[in-house]
């Protein structure tokens, strides 16, 4: 990654030019940087940001100069000025700190669809969330526990375990032996669901820890991609469900984007959702943010402040 000066672009039809107040760092940025998700180069990273609209392109009627907007699935947010399509932007409610808005667009809407749109979760269900002190992990744990679900988590250090407990985890497990531990904690029944953004190192054991008809939600690969799976394993595991969802498919519809964004931003404003900013970096130190994130040295949300 290299910091470069370029001419501030003009917004095209249906686009906004935004002065970025804060850009979110997300694990997907590291997949794009490393080539795990191939992207034509050169490329400005950054799917998520919030800031003030400086100019609007042709045909834009929903937003105006001076509005504060945020988005969680754009491009080029690691910048002082970014172009965002109106289809991806939402208005940030008056009084909400743009840094907090930037912090929850991608990970918060992800937690929202994981809780509300993958499987019907009932009060009393027990689920496992890996990396409970991470960006998604802290938000997902809070939303699940508000929903009446009992949440077990994994975390990589005692400090992270403490944070995860603070977000509502009933039990924080070591990665070593988390599967049998989860089974013990469910009196042998197994888990209703596993939410796994870690991937390669946790997949097999998580699958084995599900209750019959349990759902494995594989939503990321922080430890590397999961190798091919034999569908027969889902049968022998007890008619299991395996899904590999992505935020893009849960906010493609404008009404759905607005539903998720408004619920998340409202929860932030009311204090129902506690947002932990685990680190802020100047734009020039974006590479350090990636090293820290990939090195498991972070908790909560990382922001770049241009
Ligand atoms: P996190 O803040 O959760 O950081 C990743 C965490 O994963 C680390 O802090 C670490 O926590 C844990 N981890 C375990 N093993 C490893 C490893 N070998 N290398 C690196 N980290 C490891 O990141 P995000 O909240 O940004 O993202 C979490 C996951 O969610 C990612 O896989 C990401 O791709 C995915 N995601 C998926 C989305 C979707 O829609 N599908 C949307 C958003 C995110 P610890 O030390 O506690 O183990």
From TrEMBL:
SUPFAM superfamilies the UniProt entry points to: GroES-like, NAD(P)-binding Rossmann-fold domains
Keywords: NADP, Oxidoreductase
Gene3D superfamilies from the UniProt entry: Medium-chain alcohol dehydrogenases, catalytic domain, NAD(P)-binding Rossmann-like Domain
Pfam families: ADH_N, ADH_zinc_N
The UniProt record lists the keyword Zinc-finger: no
Keyword Oxidoreductase: yes
Domain Enoyl reductase (ER): 1-304
InterPro entries cross-referenced by the UniProt entry: ADH-like_C, ADH-like_N, ER, GroES-like_sf, NAD(P)-bd_dom_sf, QOR-like
The protein, known as: Quinone oxidoreductase
Record organism: Aeromicrobium alkaliterrae
